[in-house]
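Researcher: Re-running this chain for the archive, since the previous output was lost when a drive failed. Same request as before.
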Amino acid sequence: EFDAEIYVDGINVTTPAYIDENNSAYVPLRVVFEAMGCGVEYIPESKTAEITYSDITLSFSQYDTENTATINGSIYLPLRAVSEQLGFIVNWDETSKTINIGGALKYVDYTVEEACEVPEVGEDSDFAARLCSLMDSGENYCLSPISLKYALALAANGADEETSEEILSTLGITDLESYNNEAKAYIESSAVRYESSMDLDEETGELTEVVSPVGTGLSIVNSIWLNEDYTEGGDFSDEFKALAEDYYNTEAGTVNNEDGADTINKWCSEATGEK
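Model: Regenerated structure tokens:
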């Protein structure tokens, strides 16, 4: 048993964990799954645990020793197996020894008025569900709610007090400094890592360095640009640039009407490996 460092959509959740003989991680019933937004119930009469997410309900009997574990009287469940059944994606980061969970969206049938209603700071705004509920269900979309949340959170760091409060209220963020740290941890733990090797050309005998990704990962890079033609030559403050780079892996720069498209397109090409 050990203390597992787990990130649920970038938010740190540290909890005891147990590794079985198959190298599968088991975690206590409530801590992680409630952080994932699941409904959790333990029925002592039948020694059964129920986990509900959206329209999915999973039941686990404490008598089922193949799929559950009991430690000090508490029921532990296999983290990856349960999470993936609920639609989440689970990744193990060998370098940082962390577990990253994300990817599932809970769709809620909001009315447009309900989805657009900005909650009070501190309320659960369920940002991803509210965002998706506004999309036309008859169309296909490819969007990343967490990327949008990072972009708006970054903007909140540089906005004046009133604007910042409105952004944070919409996102459901109560402590911006803590969220900055959580975003930084998630971006760093999810990054693709590379290793270098030498390739021998049998015909010429020359050695060439080959850089290849190690395993799989998610590279999150951002940029924010200020158009000098509309800001009278203004620029971001050094403090904001440092925060953007340190916490959100973000390049903050300036463009103008003449070079804006070329500069940003070049950055996108380089940031995505010219994909």
